[in-house]
């Protein structure tokens, strides 16, 4: 399986949907929200990427039946909050590296995760599942489940660009302040770095800017790292065609099908107010240089 981590609005939905076009690959979106959105209907959106309600989608009905999802949804949400928030990343890493035993609640999560990914693979006929939930502690936990053969793709984007994306509501996702966005950006990316330090051979970092500038080349590099044979889904010129997917939650763009052109989005450089640039830069400053982002936004 391929788990994408990092902060939101970094291109993970598009990347996942492109990989979804490859034989034997299934992008399932932000799978962590299956319990709240697909069972309890308490989340921000309950629509599957195929356009149906998650409860009416044949794929997710089959998966939830296999894992007894309706009976365990509340428990799984509680366990996520208790074990898989970003603040627990170091603890889950210690367990994944065999330096500490898994607590009982974490063992319960492990058992359900195994059943869930197996059921998804069978329902979608997939050999590789792409999960873009982006919770570093969840990624760290999965690294301790070798039977799932997890790999972690760490996606990053200039924090000022993500702040601009969060600056306005998008579909069913509300807006977020630049300071809050960049604070999360720093926390999620720092925790993702801990995973890469612990498992360097199973982690890959990808900058959104590189992906947008050279989509065919970049996704080819991701495919090679993940053991996926060519050809890739992106043609020369950065064009691709997206089919139907079965994603949970995620960016509203996941519902888009048909032709798509991948190109750089630099609107933030002129559209983001100077005060917002300053706030988002301040909160992200500890990691910006590491990823090649400069203080001069021009």
UniProtKB/TrEMBL annotation:
Superkingdom assignment: Bacteria
Q: Which organism is it from?
A: Nonomuraea guangzhouensis
Tell me what this protein is called.
Sulfotransferase
């Amino acid at each position: 399986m391929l788990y994408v981590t990092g902060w939101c609005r970094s291109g993970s939905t598009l990347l996942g949907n492109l990989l979804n076009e490859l034989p034997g690959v299934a992008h399932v979106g932000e799978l962590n929200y299956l319990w709240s959105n697909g069972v309890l209907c308490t989340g921000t959106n309950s629509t599957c990427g195929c356009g149906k309600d998650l409860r009416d989608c044949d794929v997710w009905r089959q998966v939830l039946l296999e894992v007894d999802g309706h009976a365990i949804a509340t428990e799984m949400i509680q366990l996520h909050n208790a074990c898989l928030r970003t603040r627990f990343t170091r603890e889950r890493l210690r367990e994944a590296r065999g330096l500490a035993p898994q607590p009982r609640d974490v063992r319960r999560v492990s058992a359900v995760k195994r059943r869930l990914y197996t059921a998804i693979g069978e329902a979608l006929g997939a050999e590789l599942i792409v999960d873009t939930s982006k919770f570093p502690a969840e990624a760290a936990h999965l690294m301790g489940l070798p039977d799932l053969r997890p790999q972690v793709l760490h996606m990053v984007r200039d924090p000022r660009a993500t702040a601009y994306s969060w600056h306005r509501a998008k579909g069913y996702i509300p807006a977020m302040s630049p300071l809050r966005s960049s604070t999360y950006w720093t926390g999620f990316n720092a925790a993702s770095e801990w995973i890469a330090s612990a498992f360097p051979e199973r982690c890959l970092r990808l900058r959104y800017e590189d992906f947008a500038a050279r989509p065919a080349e970049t996704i080819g590099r991701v495919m090679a790292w993940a053991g996926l044979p060519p050809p890739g889904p992106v043609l020369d010129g950065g064009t691709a065609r997206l089919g139907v997917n079965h994603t949970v939650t995620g960016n509203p763009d996941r519902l888009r099908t048909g032709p798509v052109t991948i190109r750089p989005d630099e609107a933030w450089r002129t559209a983001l107010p100077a005060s917002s640039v300053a706030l988002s830069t301040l909160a992200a400053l500890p990691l910006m240089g590491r990823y090649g982002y400069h203080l001069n936004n021009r």
